[in-house]
Amino acid sequence: MAGWKEIKIYDTTLRDGTQGEGLSLSVDDKIKIARRLDEMGFHYIEGGWPGSNPKDMEFFCRMKDYPLENSRLAAFGCTRHPESGVQQDAHLQAILESEVKTAAIFGKSWDFQVTQALNTTLEENLAMISETLSYLKEKGLEVIYDAEHFYDGYKHNPEYALKTLETAAAAGADLLCLCDTNGGSLPDEVYQVTGEVCRRFPRMAVGIHAHNDAELAVANSLMAVKAGAVQVQGTINGYGERCGNANLCSVIPNLMLKMGYRCLTDEKLAQLTELSRYVSELANLIPNSHQPFVGNSAFAHKGGVHVSALLKNPETYEPIDPAAVGNTRRVLVSELSGLSNILCKIEELGLDVDVSRTNEQTRKVLSEIKELENQGYQFEGAEASFELLIRKAFNTYREPFTLETLRVIMEMKEDGKVYSEAVIKMRVGDRVVHTAAEGNGPVNALDNALRKALENFYPEIRSMTLSDYRVRVLDGDRGTGALVRVLIETSDHHDTWGTVGVSTNIIEASWNALVDSMIYGLLKQKPRN
User: Are residues 431 and 365 part of one domain?
Assistant: First the structure.
């Protein structure tokens, strides 16, 4: 039965993934990711192409100090060069020097590529495949043959494409991996061709290596498995050259939760979201919030009708349980919200307020949110401001400070430098504080003055840092009089929270967002009398 069939997962994030634009990993990064993939139970980890660059060779050398417990470390390479011997091929010798037990060797399966890219004959290409694989098998390696451009080659010259596979199989290949290198094949084509290969080579294991140029890498990988493939190659988060590779963070849950195959244990599948974010962090890339299964928005619900149904049964608007992949459900609050959103969000935040569908104050809050969003507020990325709005509406906290006056001074001097100062007068309890601070701009001066005024009363503020500041012009056709939205992200040693301010005056919008960030940060601390 398909439900008991295991599909081997072959990760090539450390090799093919690093070919993606804007992605670079140090040797230390690659080692950390390899060890994390091993902990997850991935069957194969392709570490790189030894001999092609010093970094990959260093990686394989250092990995000898980190023996893998669950995964096989694979080295990537190509068939020998035309008109040269395998023993003289530097890349093949580098694979042997890496001391891996598995090699993935790619060869040409499209006659067009043989004559145009390799500039050799079809017969010589077959000899290159045969001699390279035979040589590595004689050295005791497991050999995966990556049939580069196979689907395109099959469409143009099926006889020759299949001949390359026959040659690889005869030379001892342990698996024939069919590559959609240009990423342009359609799912029905992949299903048909993969099925034909599986029938032609009933004793051979077949795999799939799909690229995402037509946004079909995941679909093509699933169709190949359905046609008989037993290995899927891909990368975490779909990283890779051009448009990327098959995204294993989508392939794995689809195979396990939708198609009934085994890839990882259920326990490890529940760590998939954490893995996705871990790799993006090491790659210094912003996680894709809308990525299926593991994205922050994958189980985020905004429409009131949706949330109302979710409260009755999550299956109404969720294809799987978010916990199965280690993700969480999020309810968003916006102008599209209904009462269900408000009730669910209050419950999610754990606020001790008396709310219900019949509570008039709850309806007033919903109406206020819709009006604020119409004015330009956005609470999706400012949940701290939303919580403060709820607390104010239900009188569940006391303002820790209040502003009496605020003045911002900007002066440009002859040398072109801009001088900014903020002067604040505010009340904290029964005391009035009057202070000033400079900054490299008006918002920075505001932030400095606010902190200076409050730190003696609330030393916790010293641990709060502004980690992101974004300004969005909402109605640019009004020129310098346009409405702007300021979103601020603040962090302490434990959490991160977002606040929002909206005004035609960027200073006022920034001040409102800054104040919310400080108040929320204080609320997270031990309550004060």
Answer: no
